[in-house]
Amino acid sequence: MGTGVTLSFSSYGCALPRRTKLNTLACRASNFDMGLKTNFYKVLSLESESVGAEEIKKAYRSMALRYHPDACPPGKKESSTRMFIELHRAYETLSNPALRNKYDNELRKSKTMKEARLEFFRETWEAQLHELRRRSDNRERAKVGSREA
């Protein structure tokens, strides 16, 4: 039962591939992948992740007026359009309670993983420094020992 129809739900990153059974759905959490690269709270210039729906709406409206492609100078149209799209994606995610909850969980997980990576790199760096210091001390002792002999 194949079809040539493609369904797309852009705000959720889901699409039904062409020539596939209707009960097969391929989804990507593209909003969340991108959101983890770009913090939606920072995009909307929000100070905290514990803001309410009204604060999110107010921040979005303020930023949307500022970056709307029709209200920007001609030289900044491309960058304003990109920022406006990012603002819209942020608002779309943070204004929907289910999407926001999922985004917040992914953001927390991402922060935890980032902290773990930083800790690993710090521990690795310290171990390397310790080993270099040990080797340097051994060489210094060998030099002092050869001078005394």
Automatic annotation (TrEMBL):
One GO location term (cellular component): endoplasmic reticulum
Alphabetized PANTHER family for the sequence: CHAPERONE PROTEIN DNAJ 20 CHLOROPLASTIC (PTHR45090), OS09G0368800 PROTEIN (PTHR45090:SF3)
Organism: Phoenix dactylifera
InterPro entries (UniProt xref): DnaJ_C/III_chloroplastic, DnaJ_domain, DnaJ_domain_CS, J_dom_sf
Gene3D superfamilies in UniProt: DnaJ domain (1.10.287.110)
Record-given protein name: Chaperone protein dnaJ 20, chloroplastic-like
A Pfam entry, by short name: DnaJ
Residues of the J domain: 39-107
CDD domains xrefs: DnaJ
